[in-house]
C-alpha cells in the first residue's frame, strides 16, 4: 500500500510533540515521593590497593540515610558484573575472565572505579558525606598505554589475566596469507591507531529504584537501550532478584550510541539498595562521571598489510590488532574487536585471503565496549585507509582501485574469507552516484583554487560494509554469544479498533514510535493516529532484546510484520464467518477483508469488534480477541553498504582541518521513513567526523588520570564545525527479511573516519606528509607538517 | 541556612519559591517547580541543554543561582507554545529536526532568541549561534535547516 | 556547591562593605567562572556578593577619546554596542567571539578582567589598547595589572567599576580557539595607537604578555611582513593536550600577522 503515511513516506514523528514542548519523561524527570539521592564515591587513582575505608564520620553527616561499600556486597553475596560473550582464543580456550565486582573490594583499577555509595535526603548532602569518607589507598603503578600493555614488567591489572592478556584470537589461515604475500607485486603497510572515544549521549546515565515491601517487587528506572536484557543480567547473575519481581523501565532515553546497552555498577547499586533504604533512590551521573565511567569506544592499535598483484587486484590482507578492554570486561566487550571487527575485514572487496590476529588487553582505564558501529568502524578504518594508501603508492585513482576490487553484483550471495556471507549488494553504482553528487570530476579545479588562497584541499573515499542485526541466534550461540538475537512484537487491538504495537526493541532517539506505526498502518490500514507503539517497560512488553547494532527495524520490524500476518490470518477467519464465505476466498486489501469477485466486505475494525464482542463469531474454531505475538529470528545479518566522500581544506599555518563537503550514498535496502533515515545518517557522519578530527579520550600515561574528562577538554562536534551534508541512496532489498530492510543507524559513523582521514592525507600529500594520526586535531596536523618539513630538510 | 524567598515571573506568570543560596535556577525549575523541560546535560554551562531566557536573553540555567531570579522574568520551553506550537516547534516537528529530545528544549530556546534579533540569519550565523548547544544525535543538519526555513516562513508571513 | 550566604547589594559601597565584612566573601559578576568553580567544590566562600543588582556598574559611554565600559557590562552588550562598534570595532569583535551566546549574555567584562584567566580574551584587549582599569579605590594602568595566573593588582575588597579603552588608530584581535572549550589557546590583540603599537598575547602563557620585538617592528612598518621573521620563544608557554608550547609559540606569530592584516583591512 502506498499512502502519505505508509512505507516510504516522510511521516512526521509521533514522539516529537512531547520532546518539543518539554514534556518528555526521562529518568531524571521522574517525581518520586520521599526520594533519597545517591552519590557514588569514585576512585581518584588508576590503580591502588584499598587498605581501609572509614565511613564513621560520613555516617554522622547531615541527611545521610545509608552508606554502602564493596564489603557490604560481599556480605550480601551479590554477584559481579558479567561479560556475556565468551570468545575462544587461538587454542580454543575461553577468554580470561577476571572478576568485576560491582563496587571495588580491595583494589581499584581505573579512575572512576566505584568505591562507595552514599544515600542521603538530598544530592548535596550525599556529596558532603562522601567527602567525609576516609579511604586509605596504597597507590600502585598503572598501565594505561595500550601499546605497552603486554610489555614485560608492565603493571598487572588482574591476577586472572597474566600479562594483561584477555585473549589472543585469530581468524583465517596465516600460512595461506603469507604465501600470497610472497607472490605479491606490491605490498602496502600501515600502522594506525583507532582513537579511544567517549560516547557522551546528551542525557547522562541515570537510575531510580523503589522497593514495595508489601509485594516484594522492585522497580528500576534506567537509561537503558535494552531493559529486558538488563533485568535478565541483574536477576540471573548479579542481584538474584527473581525476574518476575523486578520491573525495569527505560522511559524516554536521551541517546545511547551503545553506551546504554550495558549493565553498570551504579544502576545495579541503586536497585539493590532500594530495599535496604526503604525509600526510592534517585541517581543521575554528573557529566564528569559520564566521562569517567560510561563505557568508552574503539581504542585499537593496528598493523596491517595489503598484498596486490601487478594489476592492482587485492591478493591478501593481514591485520594485527591490539584492542583495549579497559580495566574490566563490560557486557559485550569481548565480541567487539573479534566477531564485529575481524569478520568485516573483507569490506566491499573480493580479497580472497584474510588473516587477522586480535589480542585483547586489560589496562587501568574505564571499560571499553560497543560504541556506535562497534568493531565495524574500526574494520572500515583499516580497510579503507590501506586501500587509499595503496592507491596513492601505485599512483592509481582511489575510486578506480576500489572498483577494480569490488565484489560484482552477480556474485551475491557472496561468501567472504572471514566467515560472513553477504546476502545482497551492488557496490559500483553507489560509488558512481557518490562521485556524481560530490562532483569528483571537478575536484582538481577546486584544489587549485584553494591553493591560490593558501589552503590545501583534499578528497577522500570510504566504501564501507557493515553487518547489522546480529543473527541467527544459533550461530551467535556457536560464536560464544550469551543471548538470543531474535526480537518480539505484539499487536494488541482494542475493541474500538485502535491498536497497541508492543516491541521488545527500545527507542532512544531513533523514532521507532513512528517507523513501527508506519509498518502497521501500511500493512493493516489502521490510521496512524490510532496506533500506539509501546516499548521500554518489562511489565508491559514481551521479553525483547532491545536496540543496538542497527537491528531494530531489520529484526524488530520484521517481528512486527510477522505479528501482522497473524492478525490478518485470524481476521480472515472472522471475516469469512461474518460474510459467510470460505476463508480461502477472503483477501485483505487496504484494511478490509473482501471476497474476491463479490461486493462483500468487512473492515478490519469490524472483525476486531467481533473478536471482542463475539456474539456472531466462530467460537468453535477460534478464540475471541485480536492480540497476536510474534518472535522473529533472522536467517542472517543484514549488510548495509555505501560510499562516503569527504572534501577538506587545511590551513597549513595552523593545522586546522575544515570539512568543506561530505557526501554519503547508502544502500539500506528498502527505506520506511526517509526523513528519519537522513537524520540517522547525518548524526552518524558527525560522530565519525568527530572521531577523525576532534574527539579523543586521553589518559595521562603515568598517573592514569583522564585528561579529557569534560567538555572543556574533550572536543565535541558543534554546529559550526560542519557544512550541510549531501546524501543519496541505492536500493538492493535484503532478501531474507520481510521488509527488505538493512539498518541505517551506524553507517555514518562507520564510514566517515576513513573518508575524512583519506581526505586529510590527500590534502597533505603534496607537501610530503606521510601520516597523520587520528584525531587530526590542529596540533596533530601541524606537528605532522613540521615532521615532514624536517624530514625534507634532512 | 534559612531558605531564601524568591518572587519572580516564569513564562509570564508570577511565581514564588523557596530555595537555598547554592541551588541553581535549573535545580529549582526541575525540582520544586516541576518544570522538567530544561535538561541538565553537563551542569557546567558547556552543552546548552538547560537554556532558558532571563529577561528575554538566553542563559544556561545551570549557571544561574535561583536567588538571582528575584524580580526578573524567566522563560522556559514550557512557555514556548501557546494554543499552537511556536513556528520553530512546528518546523522542527515537520522536518524531524530532533531525535532523542534532550537537547531540543535548549536548541529551541536559543533558536527563538536568534530569530528575534536576527530574522534573516545566514547558515553560518545560525551555526555559530547554536554552537553552544550540543546535540549528539542529529548531526545538526536538520536543526540548522529547520531554523533557516522557519526564519524564511516568518519573514514571508510578516 | 557548599553552603554560602547570598547577597545582592544595590550599590558599590554596599557591595564593598559586604566583601570586607565577611570572612571568605567572593564577588560574583557574571558567575561564568565562579558558579562552575562552586559546583565543582573547588571554592568554599562564606558569602557570595552578587553584583548583578548594582545598576551603576553597567553601561557603555564614550568620553572624549575613550570608550568607557562599566564592569558589569555583558559581553553580548559590548559586542552589539553601536559605540564600541564605531570606535573600537576590534573590541566588539573580540566580545562577540567569547564563549557562546549563553555565556555572552551573562559574563561581564569586569568579571573576566578581574578573574585574569590565562585563556580569557579581554586581557589582551586591555593590555594592547593600554586601557585603564578603574576600581572603587583608584585606577590601574593596563601594564602591571595582570600579575600572573589568575592574579591581578586588585587588593582586598577592591572591585572593578569600569574600564576605559582609548580609541586606537587601528586594531584587530585574532583568536585561535581551543577546539574543545573555545577559550583562547592563543589570542593576539594588535593595536596601533597615538602612543605607539602594542601587541598583547593571551592564552599562550600563564598571563597576558606583550611582544616587544613585534611592537618595535610594527612601529616602523605596520604590516604583517614586518613581523614575519619574529619568533616568540616557547619557553614558559602553556602546554596541554590541545597545544604544545612550541605550537602555541608558532601560533602567536601566525595570529599576530593575521591580526595586523585584519587591522589594515
Shape of chain B: globular
* Helix content range of chain C: 25-40%
Major β-sheet of chain B, in short? 5 strands, mixed
Count every beta strand of chain C, where a strand is a DSSP E run of 2 or more residues.
14
Keywords (chain B): 2Fe-2S, Iron, Iron-sulfur, Metal-binding, Oxidoreductase
Protein name (chain B): (2Fe-2S)-binding protein
Domain 2Fe-2S ferredoxin-type (chain B): 4-80
Pfam families (chain B): Fer2, Fer2_2
Describe this structure in words.
- The complex is a heterotrimer of chains A (794), B (158) and C (265).
- Chain A is of the alpha+beta class and 794 residues long.
- Chain A folds into 3 domains: 32-140 and 203-254 and 260-293, Aldehyde oxidase/xanthine dehydrogenase, a/b hammerhead (Aldehyde Oxidoreductase, domain 3, Alpha-Beta Complex), CATH 3.90.1170; 381-470 and 636-793, Aldehyde oxidase/xanthine dehydrogenase, molybdopterin binding domain (Aldehyde Oxidoreductase, domain 4, 2-Layer Sandwich), CATH 3.30.365.10; 486-632, Aldehyde oxidase/xanthine dehydrogenase, molybdopterin binding domain (Aldehyde Oxidoreductase, domain 4).
- With 158 residues, chain B is of the alpha+beta class.
- Chain B has helices at 25-30, 87-95, 104-117, 123-129, 141-157, and strands at 4-10, 13-19, 51-54, 57-60, 73-75.
- In chain B, strands 2-1-5-3-4 form a 5-stranded mixed beta sheet, with helices on one face.
- Chain C has helices spanning 12-21, 34-39, 75-80, 82-87, 89-95, 101-104, 109-115, 122-128, 212-220, 245-264, and strands at 5-7, 25-28, 47-50, 60-63, 66-70, 132-135, 139-141, 146-148, 151-152, 160-166, 170-177, 184-193, 196-202, 209-210.
- Chain C is built from 10 helices and 14 strands.
- Chains in contact: A-B, A-C, B-C.
Features of this protein?
heterotrimer, B: 158 residues, alpha+beta, Ubiquitin-like (UB roll), 2 domains, five-stranded mixed β-sheet, C: 265 residues, five-stranded antiparallel β-sheet, four-stranded antiparallel β-sheet
What is the strand and helix layout of this fold?
The complex is a heterotrimer of chains A (794), B (158) and C (265).
Chain A: H1 16-20, E1 36-42, E2 48-54, H2 56-59, E3 64-69, H3 70-75, E4 107-108, E5 114-120, H4 123-131, E6 134-139, E7 165-171, H5 174-182, E8 186-194, E9 206-212, E10 217-222, H6 227-238, E11 246-249, H7 265-277, E12 281-284, H8 287-293, E13 300-308, E14 314-326, E15 353-362, H9 376-393, H10 398-405, E16 414-415, E17 421-422, H11 428-437, H12 443-452, E18 456-465, H13 473-478, E19 487-493, E20 499-503, H14 512-524, E21 531-534, H15 552-579, E22 586-589, E23 592-595, E24 601-603, H16 604-612, E25 627-632, E26 641-650, E27 657-667, H17 674-694, E28 726-729, H18 747-764, H19 778-793
Parallel strand pairs in A: 1-12, 10-11, 14-15, 20-21, 27-28
Antiparallel strand pairs in A: 1-5, 2-4, 2-6, 3-5, 7-15, 8-13, 9-10, 9-12, 13-14, 16-17, 18-26, 19-20, 19-25, 22-23, 23-24, 26-27
Helix pairs in contact in A: 9-18, 14-15, 15-16, 17-18
Chain B: E1 4-10, E2 13-19, H1 25-30, E3 51-54, E4 57-60, E5 73-75, H2 87-95, H3 104-117, H4 123-129, H5 141-157
Parallel strand pairs in B: 1-5
Antiparallel strand pairs in B: 1-2, 3-4, 3-5
Helix pairs in contact in B: 2-5
Chain C: E1 5-7, H1 12-21, E2 25-28, H2 34-39, E3 47-50, E4 60-63, E5 66-70, H3 75-80, H4 82-87, H5 89-95, H6 101-104, H7 109-115, H8 122-128, E6 132-135, E7 139-141, E8 146-148, E9 151-152, E10 160-166, E11 170-177, E12 184-193, E13 196-202, E14 209-210, H9 212-220, H10 245-264
Parallel strand pairs in C: 1-3, 2-3
Antiparallel strand pairs in C: 4-5, 5-10, 6-7, 6-10, 8-9, 11-12, 12-13, 13-14
Amino acid at each position: 500500500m502506498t499512502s502519505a503515511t505508509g512505507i516510504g513516506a516522510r511521516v512526521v514523528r509521533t514522539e516529537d510533540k512531547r520532546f518539543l514542548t518539554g514534556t518528555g519523561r526521562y529518568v531524571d524527570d521522574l517525581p518520586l515521593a520521599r526520594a533519597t539521592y545517591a552519590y557514588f564515591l569514585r576512585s581518584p587513582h588508576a590503580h591502588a590497593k584499598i587498605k581501609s575505608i572509614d565511613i564513621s564520620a560520613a555516617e554522622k553527616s547531615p541527611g545521610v540515610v545509608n552508606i554502602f561499600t564493596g564489603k557490604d556486597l560481599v556480605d550480601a553475596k551479590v554477584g559481579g558484573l558479567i561479560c556475556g560473550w565468551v570468545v575462544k582464543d587461538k587454542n580454543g580456550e575461553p577468554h580470561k575472565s577476571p572478576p568485576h565486582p560491582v563496587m571495588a573490594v580491595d583494589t581499584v583499577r581505573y579512575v572512576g572505579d566505584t568505591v562507595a555509595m552514599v544515600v542521603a535526603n538530598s544530592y548535596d548532602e550525599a556529596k558532603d558525606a562522601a567527602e567525609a569518607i576516609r579511604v586509605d589507598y596504597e597507590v600502585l603503578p598503572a598501565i594505561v598505554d595500550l601499546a605497552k600493555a603486554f610489555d614485560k614488567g608492565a603493571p598487572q591489572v588482574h591476577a586472572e589475566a597474566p600479562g594483561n592478556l584477555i585473549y589472543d584470537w585469530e581468524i583465517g589461515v596465516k600460512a595461506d596469507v603469507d604465501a600470497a604475500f610472497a607472490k605479491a607485486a606490491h605490498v602496502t603497510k600501515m600502522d594506525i591507531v583507532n582513537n579511544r572515544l567517549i560516547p557522551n549521549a546528551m542525557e547522562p546515565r541515570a537510575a531510580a529504584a523503589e522497593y514495595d515491601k508489601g509485594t516484594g517487587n522492585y522497580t528500576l528506572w534506567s537509561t537503558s537501550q535494552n531493559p529486558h536484557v538488563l533485568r535478565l543480567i541483574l536477576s540471573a547473575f548479579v542481584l538474584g532478584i527473581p525476574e518476575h519481581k523486578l520491573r525495569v523501565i527505560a522511559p524516554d532515553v536521551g541517546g545511547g550510541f551503545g553506551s546504554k546497552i550495558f549493565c553498570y555498577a551504579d544502576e545495579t547499586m541503586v536497585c539493590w539498595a532500594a530495599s535496604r533504604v526503604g525509600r526510592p533512590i534517585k541517581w543521575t551521573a554528573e557529566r564528569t562521571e559520564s566521562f569517567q565511567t560510561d563505557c568508552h569506544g574503539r581504542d585499537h592499535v593496528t598493523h596491517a598489510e595489503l598484498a596486490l598483484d601487478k594489476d592492482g587486484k587485492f591478493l591478501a590482507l593481514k591485520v594485527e590488532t591490539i584492542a583495549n578492554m579497559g580495566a574490566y570486561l563490560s557486557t559485550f566487550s569481548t565480541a567487539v574487536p573479534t566477531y564485529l571487527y575481524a569478520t568485516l575485514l573483507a569490506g566491499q572487496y573480493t580479497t580472497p585471503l584474510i588473516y587477522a590476529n586480535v589480542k585483547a588487553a586489560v589496562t587501568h582505564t574505564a571499560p571499553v565496549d560497543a560504541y556506535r558501529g562497534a568493531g565495524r568502524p574500526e574494520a572500515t578504518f583499516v580497510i579503507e585507509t590501506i586501500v587509499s594508501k595503496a592507491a596513492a603508492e601505485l599512483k592509481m585513482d582511489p575510486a578506480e582501485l576500489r572498483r577494480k576490487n569490488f565484489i560484482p553484483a552477480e556474485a551475491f550471495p557472496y561468501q567472504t574469507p572471514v566467515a560472513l556471507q553477504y546476502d545482497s549488494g551492488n557496490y559500483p553504482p553507489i560509488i558512481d552516484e557518490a562521485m556524481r553528487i560530490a562532483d569528483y570530476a571537478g575536484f582538481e579545479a577546486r584544489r587549485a583554487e584553494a591553493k591560490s588562497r593558501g589552503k590545501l584541499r583534499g578528497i577522500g573515499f570510504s566504501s564501507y560494509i557493515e553487518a547489522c542485526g546480529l543473527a541467527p541466534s544459533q550461530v551467535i550461540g556457536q560464536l560464544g554469544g550469551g543471548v538470543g538475537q531474535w526480537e518480539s512484537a505484539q499487536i494488541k487491538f482494542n475493541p474500538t479498533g485502535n491498536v497497541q504495537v508492543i516491541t521488545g526493541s527500545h527507542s532512544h532517539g531513533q523514532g521507532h514510535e513512528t517507523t513501527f506505526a508506519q509498518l502497521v498502518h501500511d500493512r493493516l490500514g489502521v490510521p496512524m493516529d490510532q496506533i500506539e507503539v509501546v516499548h521500554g517497560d518489562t511489565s508491559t512488553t514481551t521479553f525483547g532484546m532491545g536496540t543496538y547494532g542497527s537491528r531494530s527495524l531489520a529484526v524488530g520490524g520484521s517481528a512486527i510484520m510477522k505479528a501482522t500476518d497473524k492478525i490478518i490470518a485470524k481476521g480472515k477467519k472472522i471475516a469469512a464467518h461474518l460474510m459467510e464465505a470460505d476463508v480461502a476466498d477472503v483477501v485483505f486489501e487496504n484494511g478490509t477483508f473482501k471476497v474476491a469477485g463479490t461486493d462483500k466486505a468487512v473492515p478490519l475494525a469490524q472483525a476486531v469488534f467481533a473478536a471482542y464482542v463475539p456474539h456472531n463469531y466462530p467460537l468453535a474454531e477460534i478464540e475471541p480477541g485480536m492480540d497476536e505475538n510474534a518472535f522473529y529470528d533472522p536467517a542472517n545479518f543484514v549488510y548495509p553498504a555505501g560510499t562516503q566522500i569527504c572534501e577538506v581544506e587545511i590551513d597549513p599555518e595552523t593545522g586546522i582541518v575544515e570539512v568543506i563537503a561530505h557526501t554519503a550514498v547508502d544502500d539500506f535496502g528498502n527505506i520506511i521513513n526517509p526523513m528519519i533515515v537522513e537524520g540517522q545518517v547525518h548524526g552518524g557522519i558527525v560522530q565519525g567526523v568527530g572521531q577523525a578530527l576532534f574527539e579523543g579520550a586521553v589518559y595521562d600515561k603515568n598517573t592514569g588520570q583522564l585528561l579529557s574528562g569534560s567538555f572543556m577538554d574533550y572536543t565535541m562536534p558543534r554546529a559550526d564545525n560542519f557544512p550541510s551534508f549531501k546524501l543519496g541512496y541505492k536500493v538492493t532489498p535484503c532478501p531474507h527479511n520481510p521488509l527488505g530492510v538493512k539498518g541505517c543507524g551506524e553507517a555514518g559513523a562507520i564510514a566517515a573516519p576513513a573518508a575524512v582521514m583519506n581526505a586529510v592525507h590527500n590534502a597533505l600529500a603534496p607537501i610530503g606528509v606521510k601520516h597523520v594520526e587520528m584525531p587530526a586535531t590542529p596540533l596533530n596536523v601541524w606537528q605532522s607538517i613540521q615532521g615532514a618539513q624536517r624530514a625534507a630538510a634532512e | 541556612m534559612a531558605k531564601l524567598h524568591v518572587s519572580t515571573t516564569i513564562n509570564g506568570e508570577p511565581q514564588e519559591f523557596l530555595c537555598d543560596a547554592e541551588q541553581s535556577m535549573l535545580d529549582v525549575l526541575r525540582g520544586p517547580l516541576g518544570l522538567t523541560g530544561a535538561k541538565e546535560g553537563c551542569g557546567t554551562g558547556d552543552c546548552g541543554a538547560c537554556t532558558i531566557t532571563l529577561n528575554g536573553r538566553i542563559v544556561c540555567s545551570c549557571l544561574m543561582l535561583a536567588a538571582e531570579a528575584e524580580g526578573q522574568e524567566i522563560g522556559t520551553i514550557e512557555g514556548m507554545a501557546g494554543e499552537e506550537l511556536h513556528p520553530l516547534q512546528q518546523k522542527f516537528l515537520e522536518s524531524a529536526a530532533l531525535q532523542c529530545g534532550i537537547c531540543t528544549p535548549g536548541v529551541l530556546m536559543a533558536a527563538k532568541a536568534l530569530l528575534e534579533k536576527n530574522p534573516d540569519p545566514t547558515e553560518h550565523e545560525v551555526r555559530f549561534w547554536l554552537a553552544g548547544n550540543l546535540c549528539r544525535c542529529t548531526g545538526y543538519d536538520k536543526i540548522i535547516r529547520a531554523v533557516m526555513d522557519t526564519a524564511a516562513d516568518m519573514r514571508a508571513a510578516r | 556547591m557548599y553552603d554560602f550566604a547570598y547577597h545582592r547589594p544595590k550599590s558599590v559601597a554596599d557591595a564593598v562593605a559586604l566583601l570586607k565584612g565577611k570572612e571568605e566573601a567572593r564577588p560574583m559578576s557574571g558567575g561564568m567562572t565562579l558558579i562552575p568553580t562552586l559546583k565543582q567544590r573547588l571554592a568554599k566562600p562564606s558569602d557570595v556578593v552578587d553584583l548583578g543588582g548594582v545598576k551603576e556598574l553597567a553601561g557603555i559611554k564614550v568620553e572624549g577619546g575613550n570608550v568607557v565600559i562599566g564592569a558589569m557590562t555583558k559581553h553580548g552588550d559590548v559586542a552589539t554596542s553601536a559605540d564600541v562598534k564605531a570606535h573600537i570595532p576590534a573590541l566588539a569583535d573580540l566580545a562577540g567571539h567569547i564563549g557562546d551566546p549563553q555565556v555572552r549574555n551573562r559574563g561581564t567584562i569586569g568579571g573576566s578582567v578581574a578573574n585574569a584567566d590565562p585563556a580569557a580574551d579581554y586581557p589582551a584587549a586591555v593590555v594592547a589598547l593600554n586601557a585603564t582599569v578603574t576600581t572603587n579605590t583608584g585606577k590601574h594602568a593596563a601594564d602591571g595589572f595582570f600579575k600572573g595566573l589568575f592574579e591581578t593588582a586588585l587588593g582586598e575588597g577592591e572591585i572593578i567599576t569600569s574600564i576605559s579603552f582609548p580609541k586606537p588608530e587601528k586594531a584587530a584581535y585574532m583568536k585561535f580557539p581551543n577546539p574543545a572549550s573555545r577559550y583562547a589557546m592563543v589570542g593576539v590583540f594588535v593595536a596601533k595607537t597615538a602612543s605607539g603599537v602594542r601587541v598583547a598575547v593571551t592564552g599562550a602563557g600563564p598571563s597576558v604578555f606583550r611582544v616587544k620585538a613585534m611592537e618595535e617592528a610594527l612601529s616602523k612598518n605596520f604590516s604583517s611582513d614586518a613581523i614575519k621573521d619574529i619568533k616568540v620563544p616557547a619557553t614558559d608557554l602553556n602546554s596541554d593536550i590541545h597545544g604544545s608550547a612550541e605550537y602555541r609559540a608558532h601560533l602567536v606569530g601566525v595570529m599576530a600577522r593575521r591580526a595586523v592584516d585584519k587591522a589594515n583591512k
